[in-house]
Amino acid sequence: MNSRNKYTLDRFEGSLAVLLLRKDESVQLDVSKEKLPEHVKEGDIIELEQSEDGSIVNAVILEDETNEAKKKAENLLKKLLNKDKH
What is the side-by-side strand order in the sheet with 45-50? Predict the structure, then answer.
């Protein structure tokens, strides 16, 4: 049975993409870039479908979730910057 998990693309290291599990970012998964969609970039949220042996069956960029996460991060940064001004 295949499993599905959501990851954030943290960074690229050579030919590897370093992914962090969304529900526990202490869990890291290193994946070959070629296993991911061609236009994936750092910060994207990706849903990975993996077979029982851990190989990647499918990888999809979750664009709506990625945009929402970016908006939350931008709003938090604005709040922090405004807090410093007062």
Answer: 28-32, 16-21, 3-13, 45-50, 56-61
d(Cα 24, Cα 10) in Å, to the nearest integer?
13
Enter the pTM of the model: 0.86
Q: Name the token pair of 71.
A: 């908006």
Give the count of domains, the chain: 1
CATH number, domain containing residue 49: 2.40.50.140
Q: What is the pLDDT of residues 5-59, one digit of tens each?
A: 999 999 999 999 999 999 999 999 999 999 999 999 999 999 999 999 989 999 9
